[in-house]
Amino acid sequence: MHLFELPSELVQLIFGHIVKSRQLERVMRIRIVSRQFKTYIDYLISRFRILSQLVGALRKMEFLSRYKPAFPSYICSYLAYQVLREKSTTSSLGRIHRAAKAVCEQEGNTGDEAVVTYTNSLIRLAMCIDIDTLLQEPTAKQPNKCSDGDLEEDLYVAAIYLGKQSYVEGLITDGIEFCAAVGRHDVHSRVFGKAFDAATRQGNVSMIKLLLSCNAQYRDTGSLSIYPQRSILHSAGFYGHQDAFDFALDVRPISLPKEESERYGKPDARALERAIRIMPFPQSYERVAAMLGPDSKVFSRPGVGDPTGWLQHWANLGQIDMVRYTLDKGANPNSIHLVPGSSPLLSAIRSDNEAIVRIILEAGADPSGPDPPNLPLMEAVWKGNISVVKLLLSHGADVHEGCPPPIVFAAFKEQMDLFRLLKEYGARLDTPETGGWAMALAKLHGLSSMVDVLVREGVGRDVVFHWAPLRQSWWRHNLWPRQ
What we know:
Blueprint: H1 8-21, H2 24-31, H3 35-47, H4 61-67, H5 70-85, H6 92-107, H7 112-129, H8 131-135, H9 148-161, H10 165-173, E1 188-189, E2 193-194, H11 195-202, H12 205-212, H13 216-221, H14 226-239, H15 242-251, H16 260-263, H17 267-276, H18 282-292, H19 307-317, H20 320-328, H21 344-350, H22 354-362, H23 376-383, H24 386-394, H25 406-413, H26 416-424, H27 432-444, H28 448-456, H29 473-479
Helix pairs in contact: 1-3, 2-3, 3-5, 5-6, 5-7, 6-7, 6-9, 9-11, 10-12, 11-14, 14-15, 14-17, 17-18, 19-20, 19-21, 20-22, 21-22, 21-23, 22-24, 23-24, 23-25, 25-26, 25-27, 27-28
């Protein structure tokens, strides 16, 4: 009998055992077997709060979104489910829901659709502030405490992030001060962060100006101090808000000492050097580059200051416009970076950006370079991105090259779509380094279904794999079972 012909209660028990008894990484691989698998597993991951296993393991969510943008979206959906289940109105999840409802009430729109939309947006903001608190399981030992003032500040910051201009204008009229002066307390929510940061994250210039109207210097002179300017520059560059970036440069003139030695420790110099490294706009990049000058240390740093170093940098950050710009300026897509095992193409693959992979390949990048062990096809199969794998294969990537060969990774990842694709392009399984290695890993990790697949492909169930590149710590770290 087919699995899904069983009673739904029994199917749910089976999937519940799968979700609870396996490492999260493998559960996520099993999840993509089919749409039905995905439906059951997603529900049970949320129901059993499985992502609490990630507490302490995630980098800052803002940076994670650049490397695997689909994953933060998945976490957001997971947290939206937890928000609906949350009984406490003073926990971080409860406060997100409470703030979303409060904003809706201010608008006179309390329909479920509006509340859900605002809740999802505010989850994204809260994820940037403290993802661990949102993911951890609730505990009755430490009840969440917050004052009425805390809840009010949640509402204020939420309204700013959601762009509720007229409501914020009313708050200012009533005497609420935002970024009134350097060193003064800005409105700050423990869940959503600072009010001014919420506006800069959205790049909402009208809201930024409204908040700055509380600042005497800006109100009287139309100019800013370095601190709010630096905040706008960073957020606008990071999140891709060109209007906000240009506003920050225009609102306060920056004049740097001509000599690089005289710039050391200067806040203006640090702000521009930091901004140019996250800049997604060629026009603004050139503007800041002109302000810094060709002798700036930013352009002389080994492996970064040259065009190829910048190309790899932008590919790593997933900045499509800047990748094109740097290639137009003469960057060599095949130049090997100073850091071993890196190249512009590898950076694009690692950032999971198919568009940039395509651009770099079309610019002439070698689909099978640089030298092993870091080969583009290996990296793409390891990432599990079948679109990028197809792209590399269509540009002539060698399906046999790698240590281990890509087909071994596909077997280890249990990704049958990749496995079949590599077989279509001629990947072998009849050597110890291919079928033998794949079978050894499948048995070592208890991948019984993959063992059966390999047997059907002609690999002996009892094949013995005698060799592995022990000098390479990479494969041991990633492929050896973890205790």
